[in-house]
Amino acid sequence: MNDHALTLLVLLPAAAACAMALVPKSAGGAAKKLTLATTALVALIAWSLAFDGRAGGAGLSHIVSAPWIPSLGVQFFLGVDGVSLPLVILTASLSFLAALASLGVERHPRGYCALLLLLQTGMLGVFLALDFVVFYVFWELILVPMYLLIAVWGGDGGRRAALKYFIYTLAGSVLMLGAGLLLYGQSDLTRLAPADLAECGVMGPDAAKPHASGMVLAEWLASDDPLAERYVDAEAAGAPLRTFNLSAMARLARSTDVFTSKSWGGHNLAWWAFVLLAVGLAIKLPAVPLHTWLPDAHTEAPTPVSMLLAGVMLKLGGYGLVRIAWPVCPEAARDLAFVVAVVGVVGLFWGALAAMAQTDFKRLVAYSSVSHMGYVLIGLAAGTLGADAWALGATGAVFQMVAHGVTSAGLFFAVGVIYERVHHRDLNQLGGLMNRMPTASGLALVLALASLGLPCLCGFVGELLVLLPAWTFNPYLAAAAASVTVLIAAYTLRAVRLAYYGPEYRGPNGDRLTPVTPRELAVLIPLAVAAVVLGVRPGIVTEVAEPALVAAGQPFAHPHPNLPGMTPVADAADARRTTR
Amino acid sequence: MIWHSVLFTLFAAIACGFAMAVVFTSNVVRMAFYLVISLSATSGLFFLAGADFVGAMQLMIYVGGTLVLLIFGVMLTAQQRFVQMRPSRSEVLLAGLLGAALLVLLASAAVGVPTWRGSGPKAAALDEPPLTATPIALGLLGFRVDGDPDDGQNRAGYLLPFEIISVHLLVVLVGAAYLARTRLTAGSLAQQPPGGFEQDAAEDRIAEVEAIAADSPGTEGPPT
Amino acid sequence: MTPERLLPTLLLLAWLAPLASFVVSAIAGSLLSRRHGGQEGGAVDGAAARTIGHVATGAIGVSLVASVLALGAWIAAHPATDGHAPAATAYAGEWFGVLDVGPLHVGAAYYIDALTVVMAVVVTLVATCVHVYSFGYLAEETAAEGLEAVADDEAPTYYGNKLRRAGRLHRFYQHLSLFCFAMLGVVLAGNAVMTFAFWELVGASSYLLIGFYYERPKAAAAATKAMLFNRVGDVGMLVGLMALWGLAGTFDYERLFAMAPTWMASHYGLATLVGAGLFCGCIGKSAQVPLQGWLPDAMAGPTPVSALVHSATMVAAGVFLVGRIYPLLTVEVLVGIASVGAVTLLVGATLASVSHDLKRVLAYSTVSQLGYMMLSLGLGGWTAGLFHLVTHAGFKALLFLGAGSVIHAVGTNDLRAMGGLRRAMPATAGLMLVGALALMGAGVPVLGLGLSGFFSKDAIFEYAVAFARTNPSYAWLFWAPLIGAVLTAAYITRLGLLTFVGQARSEKAEHAHESPESMLVPMAVVAAMAIGAGWAVPGSRLSVPSLLAMSAPEATHHARTGSAWSGVTLPGVESAHEVDVRAAAGWAAIGATLVGVTSALLMHRGGRKCETPAGAPMRQFDEHWLPSVSRGCDAVARRLGAFVSGPLDRGAIDGGLAGAAGLLKSTGGGLRRIQTGSLRQYVFFLALGVVLVSAASLGVALRWING
Amino acid sequence: MILASLVTEPVGVAHYLIVGAVLFIAGIVCMATKRNLLGVLMGVELVLNGANVNFIAIGSPYLRGDAASVGLDGQLMALFVIVLAAAEAAVALAIALNFYNTVHTIDVDAADQLRG
């Protein structure tokens, strides 16, 4: 039967958001406490997923699948596996910390809390959805609360930034919808082997369990599942049975040529779907030419929203790539790998250089997010080389997403701590904070060093895992990616020197520089500890993500026939490579 | 049979000629008059085509009622100086061209369909003794004479639709009367729409309107 | 317990002790300051800070003991033979795994051979001395209580008054423990990723230590500059690592050294790239020529830091790494290393002899001595280079600690304000003299008598002579160190004269007073090391060089010729130890030193004259031209960034999209004008529509009819 | 050519359709060119009559004896048109008067407040 942990996880915040209407208008504090309680409960459930052993690893677990729109073959299909588990836990935890950080919000607290919870529902939904329509619905759900949060609670330029964010993301999701429909139009469930059908959850939750009893296809067909009936008459008429199920699409892409048979304008449809998906998701990632919404959105967003925006929302794009684009269109991914890698490296340089010139601390951290996300693209591009490269590149990309989530959320909160007190973020007017707020500055320094990519902290592992396959992919790109670490170090240390070092604070309302409050510590300390723990013990994420990624990345297993910029060395090294 | 063609040509020529005249003349009173003649000729055509009741109705309702109404309209809205409102030359030219194009199209369509050509009035039908009750009259009362009764074609006639039409006509006339009542008071005239007309002409207008309001307490509806 | 298990456990203990003290002092520091001051931001009181200091010193003491025990166990396991014994096997293994993804396995591994053990002892010994020394040097940090405890005159405040801040001795020991943990991590590392990880952690802890007085803009800038210069070097190292992975598919040293000959044969070019990449890291860390700008500025940190980090240990990590990855380096890379070393030692020596700042002279002296070590390693003198590293750690730490006590007494770094201090500070003067002599390499060549510097410098010259003999076209690699030796003797004599000889040139120098006991004892210990490091243990053949020779890679045992491109043959060990080579090297070294000393004496006439004619332009080069280069790079990057975030982001991309939106609006406006509002035109358009539609449909129908 | 042959033929439906067409076009042109509101109304009347002629022609028993003839409905449609034309004229006149009384001119071009 359906194990409803995930439905609870996704719908609890939504329920709380609705319950916010019951809270009387005057009881702002109660609203915030309710939010805190709900996010805490959701975080608890998410962490329980991690510790109950079934989740994580190659197969899907905690399956929830119920027919939603039978005529289109759309299922309300949730599930968690190695790739989505770390991101779900990151989202739940960051939402709790954001709720903790937003206890200080005064304007319309009820509205603010409702939107924050709605946002959390959207994000969790995207990470757990395994059906394209469910994925898309939750993806769009995020837009509205984010727009309102930035426009109403944001800074003075909030409305313009929110509008820009809305239009960019909407354009992205339109492209994604196009790709989804394109794939839906080509998909055909009847061509999947019964075992695959069971595994990808089409036959309901029990069949999808890894060691499910040998549920024969006939048994499912006999059941009253509307999808079963449509499967029967589709089989009889020999017509294709369309599906939105993502894992089914991935298996179709792997075992049949259903996506690559037809072609248009010189490329097969999978290629076009990949291009649409890649551009749509790259806007969210953000990849360089489409990134200008991020700095504006961040400078105007309130601190907790900024934490969520940088900590989780940027990962939606990356997760979409790893979950949909790469597995469903492997050949296209391989053809365009070089372009993706170049965009990644350009993104690295662009973000880092732009950050060098910023005077607004928050805008600097925003541009650093643009830069760090470049690694994800390079990792995925280099991953298309072969089984080893995919294991390293994809795991590196996922780890970089989680690590960047921790460090960027932390840095944004640190900037928020300063902004709450002196109400400005101009680096030239800051300084001398190390003496006024030693603990907060110390933790901020740890987070800055982590985002800098200092080993023994979480930033380095992602970089290392991504850069290793990148060398065999293209040595020049890899060298360029490595050389950006100097720029990243430069702007981070410049910011630290301008903000925290220096004799004294000479900027406006210096008297309000009270030392850090316990509530703020309760947000900063977990993030700093997470940065250190993830740095020293990266196995927490990699052991969970790697099996799932290797399973998803089987199309890249066979070595790449014609490799752009491939140094002859790799095959020699492969031949002699001794196992661990 | 020759008479039928001659009469047809006569009526057609009058109808079309005076229709053209309506278009070309710029004086609205002459237009109204030409229209009366053109519509009368049309009713002649109706009689020729065997639709005598319709021809009669055309004369009574259309020419008698509607056009009289129009003439009333012309009288009521005739300004004191006989303003010649002529559209610009290019508009006339364009409209003419358009009319020609449309005419070519319709004519080619009319002529193109073979079944509409040349059957001509059947002699027999012409010299049948005129029936006392024309099929249309029977139809109105509810007996269909044109369809053969045995295969269930004696459907009810058009009595009910005509009742509805008459009620509809009544409602419309009441509405028109209400719409056209003169709500003008001296005050409302003073606030001219700024962009409307020269201020100095406003005073004598007011005087004129009061005169109208005085002698006709409520404009009676058009004669039915 | 067999040495196979004993050594790893001992060294693990030595490694983790500083980490434990770092964690304890970090937590205790923040808790104490919260509790004491009530609301956070209060000061940690002196006693608590000192206890934290003692904890840190205890931890490093434990590491020292463990390292010495490990050294003893190693010596027991490998009796010293006559120097040409086959290389002792290294103990390699893994304490615990950290990262397992696909083919990559990275763990906390160790690779223990003679070099590791010797380096561990040197690092922990010098660190312990510095820990003890710091109590005295940083006494004023815990002198008073509360937020106004310490006055810092070099930090400019808005209203010009002296900046008052809380004492933070606890934070100093916290960062020092982190540094020792990281340094030992580099020394013990068993795979390249672990080396790189602790390599950057060492850089980070040096950033924290240089930036200890973060109120001073000079220190903050120096810290950032040091970290960035190291990062530039680390980029090269990262590229080297990536190439290594592409080449070998593993990072484990043991397996790499085994596989090295095979892929050196098959992929010579890439192997050279790997070597060059990893050496870039060493250039960054050991302040070799292109990236040496940060070391003189790093003197803005407290002097104990300069003594430990920027003379004995961290900067030596580069030399240690070249020693560790020696089998992976091809001959071309070694020649490259040698030439970089030669250029560095010349640049360092010249700048040292003109600078007015006491610590800056010693900093440039360190750069120069590191050049010597790199030169020796490059010329194939593996044992000589690393032996010089050990001896240099000794006497340079001594010189720095001496400089610390002089600055402590006089209060300023400027040589022009010192003079005649030998009367006021006899002990410091005597110890500094020992250090200076060791640095010069004073000693009697034939009898084999002399300080530690003499033996190690002599060994280097042996390899220089042997190399010059086998490769006449590269003779400049012999003349460079010779001139360097002259300059070394010159600047250290000048230093000695200007500080201790002649008249006191400032009233502060007049009533300087000797440093307290707690500073002199560690200096004495280090002086002993400076003196005795070169000698062999009486009665046995055991000495530092013989110990190191045990782990010399066999590639250095016999001559090696590089590829046709460079046509260089590195001299083997035997050719460097021929009798005539040793004699020539010995006399050359001592001759250069004497020339240097006499020239310094003449030019500075007993400490009375500070200025040297050639000095001004060189000082200009050092103080203005070099910093302007790094400032220029920063400015270029910031201007490029401004261009990217301004015109490109806002102009091109946003402008483009705004343009598209504008286009949409204008087309909408255009369409709006079609609604003219005139009834007659509407009728006209109506009819026109009818005409066009019917014409079109008629046309289609006709085409369809006739086919 | 075709038109010439029409003159010689006995009067058939085509002739009536031609007359209907001419009336229709006259109405259109009148509506399009007359600047007097009542002129436009007259144009409307002409258009309606054009349509009536066609209805009658198609439904006339004499002109088209074949079964395809619409029979009585043609005439009835004409009747409906006439009655509705009357109603429409009434309303149109009311609007025209109202327009005249408020704007004091009968010129159609004055009523362009609804332009884009």
Automatic annotation (TrEMBL), chain A:
Transmembrane helix among keywords: yes
Span of the signal peptide: 1-21
GO molecular function: NADH dehydrogenase (ubiquinone) activity; NADH dehydrogenase activity; ubiquinone binding
Main location: membrane
Domain NADH:quinone oxidoreductase/Mrp antiporter transmembrane: 129-191, 262-488
Positions in coiled-coil regions: none
Transmembrane intervals: 31-51, 58-78, 84-105, 112-130, 136-153, 165-184, 269-293, 305-326, 338-357, 364-385, 397-419, 440-470, 476-500
Official protein name in the record: NADH-quinone oxidoreductase subunit M
From TrEMBL, chain B:
Residue ranges of the TM segments: 6-25, 32-53, 59-78, 90-111, 158-180
Mode of membrane association: Multi-pass membrane protein
Cellular component terms (Gene Ontology): plasma membrane
Pfam family, one: Oxidored_q3
Organism superkingdom: Bacteria
Reactions listed under catalytic activity: a quinone + NADH + 5 H(+)(in) = a quinol + NAD(+) + 4 H(+)(out)
GO MF annotation terms: NADH dehydrogenase (ubiquinone) activity; oxidoreductase activity; quinone binding
Subcellular location(s) per record: Cell membrane
Record EC number: 7.1.1.-
InterPro entries xrefs: NADH_UbQ/plastoQ_OxRdtase_su6, Nuo/plastoQ_OxRdtase_6_NuoJ
Keywords: Cell membrane, Membrane, NAD, Oxidoreductase, Quinone, Transmembrane, Transmembrane helix
PANTHER family the UniProt entry points to: NADH-UBIQUINONE OXIDOREDUCTASE CHAIN 6
Functional summary from the UniProt entry: NDH-1 shuttles electrons from NADH, via FMN and iron-sulfur (Fe-S) centers, to quinones in the respiratory chain. Couples the redox reaction to proton translocation (for every two electrons transferred, four hydrogen ions are translocated across the cytoplasmic membrane), and thus conserves the redox energy in a proton gradient.
Similarity comment: family membership: Belongs to the complex I subunit 6 family.
Protein name: NADH-quinone oxidoreductase subunit J
Organism placement in taxonomy: Bacteria, Pseudomonadati, Planctomycetota, Planctomycetia, Pirellulales
Gene: nuoJ
From TrEMBL, chain C:
GO BP terms in the entry: ATP synthesis coupled electron transport; electron transport coupled proton transport
Broad enzyme group: oxidoreductase
Pfam families given in the database record: Proton_antipo_M, Proton_antipo_N
Domain NADH-Ubiquinone oxidoreductase (complex I) chain 5 N-terminal residue range list: 99-141
E.C. numbers: 1.6.5.11
Membrane topology: Multi-pass membrane protein
Record field: transmembrane: 12-32, 52-77, 108-133, 172-190, 196-214, 235-253, 265-284, 305-327, 333-354, 361-383, 389-410, 431-456, 476-497, 518-537, 584-603, 682-705
GO molecular function: NADH dehydrogenase (ubiquinone) activity; NADH dehydrogenase activity
Alphabetically ordered keywords of this record: Membrane, Oxidoreductase, Transmembrane, Transmembrane helix
Cell location: Endomembrane system; Membrane
One GO term describing the cellular component: endomembrane system
Domain NADH:quinone oxidoreductase/Mrp antiporter transmembrane intervals: 189-467
Xref: InterPro entries: NADHpl_OxRdtase_5_subgr, ND/Mrp_TM, NU5C-like, Proton_antipo_N
Protein name per UniProt: NADH-quinone oxidoreductase subunit L
TrEMBL record, chain D:
Job description of the protein: NDH-1 shuttles electrons from NADH, via FMN and iron-sulfur (Fe-S) centers, to quinones in the respiratory chain. The immediate electron acceptor for the enzyme in this species is believed to be ubiquinone. Couples the redox reaction to proton translocation (for every two electrons transferred, four hydrogen ions are translocated across the cytoplasmic membrane), and thus conserves the redox energy in a proton gradient.
Keywords: Cell membrane, Membrane, NAD, Oxidoreductase, Quinone, Translocase, Transmembrane, Transmembrane helix, Transport, Ubiquinone
Domain of life: Bacteria
The EC number(s) this enzyme carries: 7.1.1.-
InterPro entries assigned: NADH_UbQ_OxRdtase_chain4L/K, NUOK/Mnh_C1-like
UniProt subcellular location: Cell membrane; Membrane
GO cellular component: NADH dehydrogenase complex; plasma membrane
Gene3D superfamilies per record: 1.10.287.3510
Annotated Pfam families: Oxidored_q2 (PF00420)
Organism: Botrimarina colliarenosi
NCBIfam families reported in the protein's UniProt record: PRK05715.1-2
Family assignment from sequence similarity: Belongs to the complex I subunit 4L family.
GO aspect biological process, one term: ATP synthesis coupled electron transport
Catalytic activity: a quinone + NADH + 5 H(+)(in) = a quinol + NAD(+) + 4 H(+)(out)
Protein name: NADH-quinone oxidoreductase subunit K
Lineage: Bacteria, Pseudomonadati, Planctomycetota, Planctomycetia, Pirellulales
TM helices/strands, residue ranges: 12-30, 37-58, 78-100
Membrane protein topology class: Multi-pass membrane protein
Summary of subunit composition and partner proteins: NDH-1 is composed of 14 different subunits. Subunits NuoA, H, J, K, L, M, N constitute the membrane sector of the complex.
Gene giving rise to this polypeptide: nuoK
MF terms in GO: NADH dehydrogenase (quinone) (non-electrogenic) activity; quinone binding
